[in-house]
Design brief:
Bound molecules: flavin-adenine dinucleotide
Mean pLDDT: 92
Oligomer: single chain
Helix content: 25-40%
CATH class of the largest domain: Alpha Beta
Strand content: 15-25%
Distance between the termini: 41 Å
Number of helices: 13
Shape: globular
CATH superfamily of the largest domain: FAD/NAD(P)-binding domain
Length: about 425
């Protein structure tokens, strides 16, 4: 049993940055690092879009109207100071409109995020434990800590920095299925925008990864065996090409391998939106960003959120001890296939309703609860918008502009408000 003023769950950039800033302020902090590698360390290039500092209104453009209105003021207030702090730890260099970590190869590099997170963690003066968080301890709507597979952590504040949940889907880049968000739901939290994802329009669906210009150099893209050219922004390509071509087989003949071509889910726009006292979120686990293009935005947003939370999380006294209580896990090996059967070109009210019926009959795990909440949110949004596409409602509904889905689990039922 560990006792701490703040427990931060997840050792990617969001968790590392917040923990570093809390410890700097003298707040007793424990960072819980899970067994799977964070997206921040495995993939991210740590490209930082300078426009977010200079002109946040333009950088955060979101034609879907689903972004949290509190995001821009948060960036304006906290980003300049947090970026200056990052620069005191990591040397950054300009590259076109962005900043990247200084390196002898002066180009964005996938995986460069690992060096940055390592540097931040080297300067973090608090405690770190390696464990998987298996449950939250919530009594009367207040979070008192977490349970892990190695014991409990009693804390005055718990912050989820557990990343996104695109790994729940067969075409998702991340490893994580976001089960912890399902846990939040089970304890009464509100999650928002679970149906919305950023998509890399050119993706390798065989290996679940985006295709970058260097992958596509000399590649042949084929639609049903015939060569095609695909150019444009991720959003434009998704809206103008993929929504009417998702059911058609596409392949990419790369230098050394042929893979299934199609959009892949990267960043999950949905996440925790509140509902449990002393439970907070930063990074991709938090609901707030939805933007037409995300290039270089997430890390800067997470720095700003970390700065805001570090300022806000004041100690509340000594946390109370937590009684031990094991949690059972139930695995659903065919969950991704079932989800694929009710999203995108397969998305009709019938396929989604059939999934919801199956999910209700099989309740008993947090990951399934999250999947159920995603499908219920998608069912409630009777339109297509941004990167979200429904085959039975292919057009945008102007009446839903700026509307956010909010989902809760109450008395054994998933409830969605839009
Ligand atoms: C290919 C690619 C390139 C990208 N490049 C950039 C870029 O250059 N610039 C940019 O700004 N953004 C970039 N992004 C986006 C950005 O990197 C991610 O959104 C970001 O890494 C998410 O950070 P995070 O700290 O919220 O989560 P993560 O980095 O995913 O870390 C979360 C950690 O929490 C752990 N966790 C989850 N559940 C539990 C649990 N129950 N118990 C304990 N631990 C748990 C996870 O396993 C994971 O290790 C990129 C994304 C991709 C996919």
């Amino acid at each position: 049993m560990i006792t701490s003023q703040v427990a931060v769950v997840g050792g990617g950039i969001a968790g590392a940055w917040l923990s570093y800033r809390l410890a700097q302020r003298g707040v007793d902090t424990v960072l819980v690092v899970g067994p799977e590698p964070p997206v921040s360390r495995e993939w991210a290039a740590c490209v930082l879009n300078r426009q977010l500092v200079e002109d946040p209104v333009r950088a955060l453009e979101d034609s879907s109207g689903t972004q949290d209105p509190a995001l821009r003021p948060l960036i304006e207030r906290h980003l300049p100071r947090e970026l200056a702090e990052l620069r005191s730890l990591v040397e950054l260099m300009p590259f076109e409109g962005v900043l990247i970590p200084r390196h002898q190869v002066p180009m964005p590099r996938l995986g460069a995020g690992d060096e940055v997170v390592t540097t931040v963690l080297r300067h973090y003066a608090g405690r770190m434990v390696e464990a998987r968080v298996t449950d939250l301890v919530v009594r009367d709507g207040v979070c008192h800590g977490v349970r892990t597979d190695r014991g409990s952590i009693a804390a005055n504040h718990v912050v989820l920095a557990s990343g996104g949940f695109s790994g729940l889907f067969a075409d998702g880049v991340a490893n994580s299925s976001g089960a912890l968000l399902g846990t939040c739901l089970r304890h009464g939290a509100t999650l928002a925008n679970l149906e919305l994802f950023q998509r890399f329009a050119l993706g390798d669906r065989t290996r679940r990864r985006p295709l970058y210009p260097f992958d596509l150099d000399g590649a042949r893209l084929l639609r049903d065996g015939s060569p095609i050219e695909l150019r444009g922004t991720d959003l434009a390509l998704f809206r103008e090409y993929w929504t009417s071509n998702l059911g058609v087989p596409h392949t990419a003949q790369l230098k050394d391998v042929t893979v299934e071509l199609g959009p892949v889910r990267g960043f999950s726009y949905g996440g925790l939106a509140g509902g449990i006292e002393n439970l907070h979120a930063t990074g991709e686990a938090r609901y707030d960003i939805a933007a037409d293009a995300l290039a270089g935005l997430p890390w800067l947003v997470f720095l700003a959120t970390g700065g805001m939370l570090a300022e806000r999380l004041e100690p509340l006294g000594k946390p109370s001890p937590i009684p031990e209580e094991p949690v059972a896990f139930v695995d659903f090996p065919d969950l991704r296939a079932r989800l694929a059967a009710c999203f995108d070109h397969n998305s009709t009210s019938e396929t989604m309703t059939a999934f919801l019926r199956w999910a209700r009959e099989n309740r008993g795990s947090d990951v399934l609860l999250l999947a159920e909440a995603c499908v219920a949110s998608a069912l409630a949004r009777t339109e297509s918008r941004g990167f979200f596409f429904r085959a039975d409602h292919p057009a945008e509904d102007p009446g839903l502009a700026g509307r956010t889905t909010r989902v809760q689990y109450r008395d054994g039922d998933i409830e969605v408000q839009l």
